[in-house]
Amino acid sequence: MIPYPFEYKRAKSLGEAQALLAQNPDAKLLAGGQTLIPTMKMRLANPSALIDISKLSELSFIRASGDTLAIGAATTHGAVAASIDVRRLIPSLAHMAAHIGDPAVRAVGTMGGSLANNDPAADYPAAVLALNATIKTAKREIAADDFFTGMFSTALEDGEIVTEIRFTKPERAGYEKFANPASRYPMAGVFVAKTKDGVRVAVTGAGPGVFRVEAMEAALAKSFTPDAVAKIAISPDNLNSDIHASAEYRAHLVTVMAKRAVEHAVANDGH
Amino acid sequence: MTTVSMTVNGKPVSADVEDRTLLVYFLRENLRLTGTHIGCDTSQCGACVVHVDGRAVKSCSMFAVQAEGANVTTIEGLAKDGKLHPVQEAFRENHGLQCGFCTPGMIMTAVAAIERHGAMDRETIRHELEGNICRCTGYHNIVSSIEDAAKKMSEA
Question: Which of A16, A62, A78, B145 stands the most exposed, by the fewest C-beta atoms within 10 Å?
């Protein structure tokens, strides 16, 4: 399948990318393109231009400093999965990255692209929200709680480019997803993180966008055990329903995945 | 039209293409390297996997202009001096294909996985093959082929 015509521009710097975006209001940024290009092939997207930021070295890095991990927006899933620093500080984030899509997707797909697209079935939003990460753009910092605003929508303004995502090492964390058998995206994925500020539970894949489950967070704050969440049911209202799973089934999966995520967090096995 | 230049299977190539030309069409139609297959067109089957600067990627999910200046290897570039690549040889020995349509993508994915892992257990191989779909074999012999090749290559 052939996309609509567009003009390709490779940015040589972040500044040039911003200038090109300002000059081309109907343009889109291209990083890994693993969602954007298939969408364009289906002719569901018709950007006037693609501004390629995937080659910008200033956006591709993993820096560890104390308990802080800074990951450049154009860092690929494969690089996150293989990073010794990520595996040391937040092994469940490396585990998540190693299970996004398939190896060819991980070779080019990027963290910034995943977050900016905010697909309801993307993996990374669950980690970013549960770990209370900070999303840095060229002009400001956005807290995870403020970043994800709904299905395919974020707090990013027109022309605003994600540059870096900053995480703090949790005391314990775990991620478990029930993957679609063909595409490996989460039909329900739950990331659980325990930090000195409390417990956060973020769910992706099940609803129109990533969301937190306060009942589970409160229960885990009292007792950080799999049993604490095993009987907490979430409402199927507003959950996704498709040929792969009904909303009721997804609601059931959220509880099961949460329990398994806590099992991994308790074991601290980097899952 | 944009002039795109890259190295494909060791040879410099150049052509004028529309910016929307996918890498797989550039390989198949401009260069007539039809070993790289188009199986699904929805980025799920992996029949079009090639190596771009050493990374196995889906050439149906990348534009040719993105590969400007890159080093690309396709299935046609694996055999050297008439001798099959060890992964190709292992697929032959272990009967790792039936119709063969998915095989180029399977082999390109396997070569990249072996470069990253060396010898692999069957579970790791199956995880690495999650982006490649075969509709004939049930995967058993594909996994055996890659297991065999990875073992031989890491001993060599």
Answer: A16
